[in-house]
Amino acid sequence: MSEAPSNSVVALRQAPLVHAARNAGVPFDAGWFDTLRVNHSAVERRTATLGTRRSVKKDAQAAWLLKAVTCIDLTTLNGDDTEGRVRRLCAKARRPVREDILEALGMAGAPIATGAVCVYHRFVAAAVDALAGSGIPVAAVSTGFPAGLTPHPLKLKEIEASVADGAAEIDIVVTREHILTGNWRALYDEVRDFRAACGPAHVKAILATGDIRTLSNVARASMICMMAGADFIKTSTGKEGVNATLDVSLVMVRAIREYRERTGAMVGFKPAGGVSTAKAALAYQILMKEELGRPWLEPALFRIGASSLLADIERQLEHHVSGRYSAFHRHPAA
């Protein structure tokens, strides 16, 4: 797990590849997922070891946390969002870690920025304007987020409107009913339509794993969304009762591994909802490194959907350089 801090610093100083090659998808084939079964106990045993078999400390941990910052989709998805709040969030995305902390870490002037800014369609144009010249993409939640129960034609129009306003990524919500009733062809066709509507924008398919009940459903839905052309698969909207967990994430990343073995395509992964501490971010990074390999530690293939995570990472980095914990409110996300 551990890498020399100097190697991590070199990687951070390089301009990150924001997007991987598109996933073209494959024709629908029930044989790819009909027999998928997940051993829940085995999953729990595997995830329970993630924080115990590996340890990242001191300078190496600081480097890994800086890497995590570059993989954050800095998010605001609240009913009281305003254009001013979104623009402040974009300013934080450009400079996510205080300059005095970066200087103390020997990273002054490093091109560290978040992986994306994620907003409702209403604020896409403002976010695109605020991030102009930064290389940071804007992601728009779409398709009737978070419930996904608006009419299908309206979902396609919403996607098209966000792409027209400059969104480079679309986080789409699948219809949970298709999964709960085993209507896999309907799920495939829906995601295929969403991908077509996205045009050049990358598709991040949200499974809402807290709503679809079983790990076997998670495995099947993951495979079908990738077959339909999703560039990322994402755990949750952040609005469900249960959002990202290591158990569902393990199932999803192993589906990504199987899809790559079958097609050669590299699909990204995004846990979202409830990933709010630096310790949790490290656990997800360990999961990606051990299950999928080094390429999945970059923002091209790994994102964390979060609003409060950045503040805790910045707080941990300040503790690393000063030996003291600061108050949480000294590290606002926006």
From TrEMBL:
GO terms for biological process: carbohydrate catabolic process; deoxyribonucleotide catabolic process. One of its GO terms (molecular function) is deoxyribose-phosphate aldolase activity. SUPFAM superfamilies: Aldolase. It catalyses: 2-deoxy-D-ribose 5-phosphate = D-glyceraldehyde 3-phosphate + acetaldehyde. Pathway: Carbohydrate degradation; 2-deoxy-D-ribose 1-phosphate degradation; D-glyceraldehyde 3-phosphate and acetaldehyde from 2-deoxy-alpha-D-ribose 1-phosphate: step 2/2. Its EC number is 4.1.2.4. It comes from the Bacteria. SMART domains: DeoC. Signal peptide: none annotated. Pfam families: DeoC. Keywords: Lyase, Schiff base. The keyword Lyase applies. InterPro entries: Aldolase_TIM (IPR013785), DeoC (IPR011343), DeoC/FbaB/LacD_aldolase (IPR002915). One of its GO terms (cellular component) is cytoplasm. PANTHER family: DEOXYRIBOSE-PHOSPHATE ALDOLASE. Belongs to the DeoC/FbaB aldolase family. DeoC type 2 subfamily. NCBIfam families: deoC (TIGR00126). This is Deoxyribose-phosphate aldolase. The lineage of its organism: Bacteria, Pseudomonadati, Pseudomonadota, Betaproteobacteria, Burkholderiales.
